[in-house]
Amino acid sequence: MPNAAYLLLIPLLPLAGFALLGLFGRRYFRKTSGVLGTSLVLVSTALSLWVAYWYFFIGGFAGGAYRTIPVLQLPWLRFSSELSVNMNIALDPLTVMMIVIVSFVSLMVHTFSLGYMKGEERYSTYFAFLGLFTFSMLGLVMASNLFEIYIFWELVGCSSYLLIGYYYDRPSAVAAAKKAFIVTRFADLGFLVGILILSFTARTLDIDPLISHIIHQAMFAPQAMASFLGISAVSWGLFLVFIGGAGKSALFPLHIWLPDAMEGPTPVSALIHAATMVVAGVYLVAKLYILYALIDPLIQNIILWAGAISALLPAIIACTQSDIKRVLAYSTLSQIGYMMFALGTFHTGNGGTMGYSASLFHLFTHAFFKALLFLCAGVIIHQVHSNELKDMGGLRKLLPLAHACFLIACLAIAGIPPFAGFFSKEAILLAAWNSNKFVYGIGLFTSGLTAFYMFRLYFSIFWNRPATGHRHKQPFVESLPLVILALGSAFAGFVPFTRFITADGFPAASEGIGLSAIAPVSIALLGIGIAARLYYKQSPRPQRAAAAFKGFYQFAYHKFYIDEVYTFITKKIIFNSIGRPAAWIDRNIVDGLMNLLATITARIAAGIKGIQSGKVQDYTLYFFAGIVGLAVLFIYIYT
Amino acid sequence: MNQVPLTHILIVSTALFFIGMYGLFTRRNMITMLMSIELILNSVNINFIAFNRYLYPQRLEGVFFTLFVIAIAAAEAAVAIAIIINLYRNFHSIDVEAADEMKF
Amino acid sequence: MSASAVVFYVLSAMILVSALLAVTSGKIFRSAIWLLFSLTGIAGLYFWLQMEFVAAVQIVVYVGGIVVLIIFSIFLTQQSGKDLPAPKRTRTMFSILAAIAGFILTAALLRSYAFPPPEQSAPTATIDNIGAQLLSTKEHGYVLPFEVISILLLAAMIGCIVIAMKTKPETK
Asked: Are the C-beta atoms of A494 and A417 separated by less than 8 Å?
């Protein structure tokens, strides 16, 4: 049984790295900060793997199911005897899986950055920030108190801000960091209000007691719950918490920050915006899955449709973009949409919680191939010194390893067997088929689009036209993570996921792959074929295809003008109707009051300064007046 | 002197005192201010002598007070004239409003 | 109304009228002369009160010394012929108000106080008594104030000389 000390080491080692490198890195660890950070995360990863091995194979299985094991209970802020913010750590299947994913991908990114960020001026600061992020994310997934999750949630947002704005001398990077922070902060407002509502209803902030209390109340005393606008308070709370998760996971329409966040260094995009931070929203909904599934079908539908739209629209946009990192960002948005709508596919009946396992399985495999895609993109960008597709082409001879890894990752994401993505996408589509056929259709169409735009990317980069330039020497530390992640993308699908992670802890048999697999695979192959036809060689076919869609193509190319709508709302409405009057009040009324007080004082002073005239006779007059006054006072009034 | 009550003499000296005070407040000339001060001192002298004569005719305190006041008034008038001459040398005027430099 | 009462009222009138003219006169030399008349009237009042020694001292010191000193200073500051500037209206008003207020206050106080009736014994303010008591060291003797006054007069003399001295210009 791993005691609390070992578990605490997992997040605290990267935190120590952050502290050391942040305080002393510039001076003492100039060259060695990378190795220091990476070795700390290596120990963390080893510990996580050991904990996972212990939990899933030795100690976690009790009474036929994987139980939640509380490891650490540290009361921190006690509001009342039941309601307190505790720093708790508990192990359950979801947490253990997330610890492994986060530390492993962080290790890969650390290793890659050893080579990628070599020669940077602020090398140690970069690794310090990476350590901070790893600590925050690990703390988030290990937390078992709702408010503790919120604390780490904000920390994750802060580290993301620091990392996106890493190149702070670029105004676009600074603007992107601000945008990310502000959008997620705005969503976190909903999260906080949701926490308050839920904790008020359940009278506790610890997650397991909260869930059981609310379920108990919903089942046995539904009329006792408060309601607002016809929807119960608990539903509002869950909806607001979901909004918080939607902001962090960049669901439509709060997705605007993720494409801009690509201004950060590419390994950062691999870590944060592919594998870990953006799945925090999915993690949150999964943590409270029982509530989302059972309390209110309305909330469940909201999750389902929000996820479905978030899967479809970014996929359409991705078909038109020409910046490699932007395409990958929209691909991430689309895949998170898949994960989210899978969580919304609950239905009573046999196998109704398959969506939970499917979503988390996809999270697991997505971490591998998305991180791999971003790291390969980093290698490609280093080769051609540009992000644009038009500068790339025919790189298969110059970058053989990146070529192989990128191909594996594209096959995985397109859902071609036997790569990892096939199994997880299959599970999701199956869960959707059993729940809502329309959403299944959207998922199917989107997987076709996914295959199309990913292979559009693949062919434009590695084929299309003859290459120019010479081959850069790729350091070993960059190649190693690519190989490991490629192996993961290839074989992670064979993990019997539902044996370990299900909604209620009881292992379930995985659904067999049968005839239901034909439709997605054929659509994916169709997408690949169309992409090959258009992009395999240089030809005017892409332009003709774009011209055929004309208006819709322009609409998608400009990302459906969502950013413009946001700018309009903030500039014209919020700034003009709230900002300007507030500034006016501050300048004229508040400052004016102060100025008024000062002016009155000055006027009074100018008025009475004439008493000190310098003339002796005036002084004698005042003197005598005082004497007469005192005489009258003492003789007539005080007798 | 039997027919004149004490209060009448006191009223005379009071009136003299306040006439001197009026002159002190009003006159712009330093020397006339000095004159007003002499009037005030004299009114005090009248008071002393009157009290001595009417209330304690066997005693001499009032007389001595008056003598000393006269002596001191003389000394003070001398010093005041010296100061006035000094001020006249600096400001070239015996207008008391010319020496108003200690103001706001 | 006996003759001495009439004399008293005439003397008082002279004193007060001269004082009033002294403080309101436009020309400074006339003001000094009105002061002289007022002081002489006061000396007359002392004579009427049978305090001859004090009256004599008043004439010798006040009239003969101080008023002469004032006239000298008028000449020294070359102001004898010029007209004095009149004071401001507001100042005059306030001063009259103050003087009248003070006078009414004091007069009311005097009226309300009941003085005992005057005794009729003969006064002892003769020159021998004054002289003897001035230099006596026994009880009710005034030798100490006498000596202090002489030091005061010495200090005043030295002070006047120092203040009014013309400082020699610095030799370059």
From this structure: no
Please list the helix, strand and coil fractions of chain A in percent, rounded to the nearest 5, in that order: 75, 5, 20
Using DSSP's 3-state secondary structure scheme, residue A77 falls into: strand
Of the CA atoms within 13 Å of residue A202, those in its CB half-sphere come to 28
DSSP assignment letter at B4: S
A3-7, A245-249, A624-628: least confidently modelled range: A3-7
Q: Rounded to whole angstroms, how far apart are CA atoms A308 and A441?
A: 10
pLDDT at C25 over 70: yes
Phi/psi of residue A348, nearest 5 degrees: -70, 140
Q: Give residue for tokens 């607002």.
A: A228
The whole-angstrom distance between residue A597's C-alpha and the CA centroid of its chain comes to 50
**Residue pairs between chains A and C whose CB atoms are closer than 8 Å:** 15
Contact criterion met (CB below 8 Å) for A363 and A279? yes
Facing residue for A631 by CB, picked from C91, C94, C105: C105
Name A70's bridge partners: A90
pLDDT of residue A512: 66
* Distinct helix (H) and strand (E) counts, chain B: 3, 0
**pTM listed for this prediction:** 0.72
Q: How far apart are CA A615 and CA A620, in angstroms?
A: 9
Which chain B residues are within 8 Å of A610, Cβ to Cβ? Answer: 104
Higher pLDDT, B49 or A352: B49
Neighbours of chain B (3+ CB pairs under 8 A): A, C
Report which secondary-structure segment, H or E, holds C48.
helix C28-48
- State how far the Cα of A539 lies from the Cα of A295, in Å rounded to an integer: 55
Q: Which two tokens mark C22? A: 């002294």
Distance of CA C19 to CAs A409, C24, C34, C46, Å?
121, 9, 7, 17
CA–CA distance, A33 with A128 (Å, rounded to integer): 8
- How big is the CA angle at A102 (ends A99 and A108), to the nearest 5 degrees? 135
Chain B residues close to C22, C-beta within 8 Å: 23, 32, 35-36, 39
